[in-house]
Amino acid sequence: MLLHIGEEAVIQQKEIVAILDYRALESSELMSAFLRQHKEKKSMVNLCHTNHHPKSVIITKEHVYISPLSSITLKKRAGERIDFAHSWYVK
């Protein structure tokens, strides 16, 4: 199934590894290094324009997306559960 993650971007739900709250990650040096590395490799896609603040980080097998949509909104859009590759469920 496809999931709209902001702007005009959609991704396959089965590709999602994690959806994280951006604010919770701001103070993490490890996460800052992770995002910086993906930005340098050009595998990070920032969907936030100047008038939108980042609210979530979506990690897939190939890319990292910075979304203006909250992780709660993304969960609701995905429905009651998201099937992850390792059979983890979000309810």
TrEMBL record:
Stored InterPro entries: RemA-like (IPR007169)
Family annotation (Pfam families): RemA-like
Domain of life: Bacteria
NCBIfam families cross-referenced by the UniProt entry: MtxRegRemB
Protein name from the UniProt record: DUF370 domain-containing protein
